[in-house]
Every structure is written in structure tokens, then in C-alpha cells.
Design goal:
Elements lengths: L15 E6 L5 H13 L3 E6 L1 H6 L2 H8 L3 E2 L1 H6 L6 H8 L2 E7 L1 H9 L5 H8 L4 E5 L3 H5 L1 H12 L3 E2 L3 E4 L5 E5 L3 H16 L7 E6 L4 E2 L5 E2 L6 H12 L3 E6 L9 E4 L3 H11 L5 E4 L6 E3 L19 E3 L3 H4 L6 E8 L4 H11 L3 E6 L11 E7 L4 E8 H15 L2
Parallel strand pairs: 1-2, 1-4, 2-3, 4-5, 5-6, 9-12, 9-14, 12-13, 14-17, 17-18
Antiparallel strand pairs: 7-8, 10-11, 15-16, 18-19, 19-20
The structure holds flavin mononucleotide.
Flavin mononucleotide (FMN) binds next to helix 2 and helix 6.
Length: 406
């Protein structure tokens, strides 16, 4: 990657990001994004379109980035003529366009370079991320969809838009990705360039507790929050993996594929399908061992009953059902007490490559908590990770995965 240059940003930083800002109402989130980049030590150079300047002044971006803000005016005023587009492109490592209007996306897809931002895009040779945002009808228009497909086909990372209330007051798909998700995409672009062991590998992660139906409204469940699985999926994404998260709870703002499931059976089907061409499966979900033998289609009424018996049967073994040569499997063993001996037995019985042991009775860690304390059992080692946040635990698990990958 190219590094130093005279375009400013966080002084001394060799991680240089070009932020293209266009005239979409979500521009206020771009201010937050640039602020976040500066806070993380990236050197941000902002390039705005004329429409963007009508929403937010260059001064705002300059203040939050502590770096230069370029536009058509600055380009035409530079003494040597219009070379800012070449200089800006040459000196950056990653380019991100947020918000990306329908107009600018169309120009990027067509190769039109009639302003500084689109000229910089054409001159830039590194990874490009776009965060589209617009009214749902503009977003769904075949022209916009075709432009996004063309850009994605050329390797541009097109971040998914969210569904919800849009600035125009209508409901639909078209909300821009949140600044944190865009930041994650930028961090990932740097990781991909560094070509780490997980880069380009397909990683499937499961998260959350399964819900096994009793009747139309009730279920047998557990206290798993899905935080450990989410942390693992986020960390794998940041290391450049192609991530699929199979989750039993809503996943907000994930920049990778998510598959919603409810029961162990649904999870097994989703895992089987998504691991067909995967390299790694990390089973962080708390899958129910038993489910009601028969689920009532309606609602069981209380009536005059004093008790209600439930007959339970074993659920499918999701991990075993996904086993195939070439798939590195990571299991979690939640034990009631410091029973590492049982975790060792489980590792042998399940034939997994790695097993992550945690004690669910330990205070303040594990199920539902923000922190965890784990021991990773590899083929020949036991790596103890003392109490820390789940992100750090996820990093330790993926370090072990990277080591175990063929
Ligand atoms: C209040 C307002 C909000 C707008 N929001 C968006 C938007 O979210 N997405 C979009 O594609 N265009 C939006 N537009 C239209 C663009 O600003 C317009 O297409 C402009 O030409 C884009 O120029 P640029 O791509 O060079 O920034 C908005 C316009 C106005 C006046």
C-alpha cells in the first residue's frame, strides 16, 4: 500500500483514507464517520461534491478530520491546474464514498469524471467502499440496482442499506449503513490488503440460543444473548473473511450475510447450507439439547389445569450434521463449573479441531454477559484467556483458528 503524502489528516498516520462525500441527507452520518476515522488514527482526506457542500460546509469536515477538504473549487484553484485528483488518489490506501447518492453511483458505474470526487475514483487503484443511501423508490429503480451490480462486479464493496423510516418520511430500504459499520468496512479493507490467514476464507458463525416451540406463542429457550457469536463474526469480517452469521436474534447493522433462524432444526439446515463451501464453522450458539416432542399449532389454554407436562426429545446435533472433510470446526462447551476435564472429553467425542471451554457458573462472565473467560483447546495446547470483553476473546479464538488452518 502507498503511504506517506502531504495531504494531511492524523499527523504521522500511514493509514490514509479518502472519504468521498456526496449530496445525500445522510451526510450528517459522514461527519460522524470522519470523526471516527480521525479518532482511530486514520488520516482522512475528504472530497466533497457541490451538492454535499450545500448540506454541510467544508469547515465541519476539516474540524473533525483535522485534514484537508477538497472539492472542485480547490482543484481548479491549485496552481498547477487540476491535478488534485491524481495526487489524492495516489496518496490514499482506501477510498470510501458515504453517503453515496444515486447520481454519484451512476457516474462511478459509467466512468464519468465531471467533478473532483468522480475523477479521484477513476484515478484510484485501491479498495473502494460505497455506502448508498436514498429514497426507497430511487434505490429500487432498475437503473440504480444495475449500477450497484456493475460496481460490485468490479470489486467495489457495496454496503447494504437498512430498512426503516427514510428522511423523506417514507418507509423502505435506503437508509445508509451506520458510521460504525462503515468504519468496520474500512478496517477490513486494510486487513484484506495485509493478506492475513483468514482473508478470503469463508467463515460461518452461529449465535444465540435456539427457541424450541411449545405452542404458537411459547418456547423452550435459554439465556444466550448471542454476543459471543456476534463478536466472532465481527472479528472474522475485520480479518477479511467472507462471513455468514446464523443467528436466533435480530442482528443490527452487520456488514456481512446474516441468516435468521429459530430452532435447532432450522439452525442445522442453515448451517448445512452455508457451510457447503465454507472453510470454518464456529458454533457459538447455545443449541437446545431437547425440544417438545409435539408443538401445539394453537395456544395451550390454562383452563382448569394445575400442571402441564411436556415430553421432550433430543434435537439434531448441528455440529455433527455439518461435519465434512476440509471444514475446520470450532465448538463451544459451556460447563457448569470449572470442568475442563469434561471439555477435553467433549473435544475428543465430537472430533472438532478446536474447542472453547467456558464456565457458565463463573460470576460476571459467559452467558448474557459482556465479558468471558475461556480456555481454547487445540490439538496440542490449552490456551487460557483470562476475563476480558468478548471482542478480545473472539480475537484469541480466531488467532487459534488462523494457526489451525491448513
Ligand atoms: C434535501 C435533499 C435530500 C437529498 N437526499 C438524497 C439522498 O439521500 N440520496 C440521493 O441519491 N440523492 C439525494 N438528493 C438528491 C441529490 O442531492 C442530487 O441528485 C444531487 O445532484 C447529487 O449530487 P452529487 O451526487 O454530486 O452529490 C437529495 C436532494 C435534496 C435537496
Amino acid at each position: 500500500m502507498t503511504g506517506a503524502g502531504a495531504q494531511g489528516g492524523a499527523p504521522g498516520s500511514d493509514r490514509r483514507v479518502l472519504v468521498g462525500v456526496t449530496g445525500g441527507i445522510a451526510i450528517y452520518k459522514a461527519v460522524e464517520l470522519v470523526r471516527g476515522l480521525a479518532r482511530e488514527g486514520f488520516a482522512a482526506t475528504v472530497v466533497t461534491t457541490a451538492a454535499a457542500r450545500r448540506f454541510v460546509t467544508p469547515l465541519t469536515f476539516a474540524a473533525v478530520s483535522r485534514g484537508p477538504v477538497l472539492d472542485d473549487e480547490s482543484a481548479w484553484q491549485s496552481t498547477g491546474g487540476w491535478f488534485e485528483h491524481i495526487d489524492a488518489a495516489r496518496e490514499a490506501d482506501v477510498m470510501v464514498v458515504a453517503p453515496a447518492t444515486a447520481n454519484t453511483l451512476a457516474k462511478m458505474a459509467a466512468g464519468i469524471a465531471d467533478n473532483l470526487l468522480t475523477a479521484v475514483y477513476l484515478a484510484f487503484r485501491g479498495p473502494v467502499i460505497v455506502a448508498p443511501t436514498m429514497n426507497w423508490a430511487m434505490y429500487e429503480h432498475p437503473a440504480t440496482q444495475e449500477n450497484l451490480r456493475r460496481l460490485a462486479g468490479r470489486g467495489v464493496e457495496v454496503l447494504p442499506t437498512g430498512r426503516g423510516e427514510l428522511a423523506c418520511g417514507e418507509e423502505g430500504l435506503g437508509r445508509m449503513a451506520e458510521p460504525e459499520a462503515i468504519l468496520a468496512a474500512v478496517r477490513r479493507a486494510f486487513a484484506v490488503a495485509a493478506e492475513g490467514p483468514l482473508c478470503g476464507r469463508r467463515v460461518v458463525v452461529t449465535a444465540g440460543g435456539t427457541r424450541e416451540r411449545i405452542d404458537a406463542v411459547r418456547y423452550v429457550g435459554n439465556r444466550s444473548s448471542g454476543k459471543m457469536g456476534r463478536a466472532l463474526a465481527d472479528e472474522a469480517y475485520l480479518r477479511g473473511a467472507e462471513v455468514t452469521l446464523v443467528a436466533t436474534h435480530a442482528v443490527e447493522g452487520a456488514p456481512y450475510t446474516t441468516v435468521p433462524v429459530e430452532s435447532a432444526e432450522e439452525m442445522a439446515a442453515a448451517v448445512r447450507e452455508s457451510t457447503a463451501a465454507a472453510d470454518v464453522l464456529v458454533m457459538a450458539a447455545a443449541v437446545a439439547d431437547f425440544r417438545p416432542r409435539e408443538a401445539e399449532p394453537g395456544k395451550i389454554e390454562r383452563g382448569q389445569r394445575e400442571t402441564l407436562g411436556l415430553e421432550l426429545e433430543r434435537t439434531v446435533d448441528v455440529l455433527a450434521a455439518a461435519a465434512r472433510p476440509g471444514l475446520l470446526r470450532v465448538a463451544f462447551a459451556a460447563e457448569a463449573g470449572p470442568r475442563i476435564d469434561r471439555a477435553r472429553e467433549k473435544k475428543a467425542a465430537k472430533g472438532v479441531d478446536l474447542l472453547v471451554f467456558n464456565d457458565v457458573l463463573a460470576e460476571g462472565v459467559g452467558i448474557g454477559a459482556d465479558e468471558n473467560e475461556i480456555t481454547i483447546l487445540t490439538g496440542d495446547r490449552e490456551i487460557h484467556v483470562s476475563r476480558r470483553d468478548k471482542r478480545a476473546c473472539a480475537a484469541a479464538v480466531l488467532d487459534a483458528v488462523e494457526e489451525a488452518l491448513p
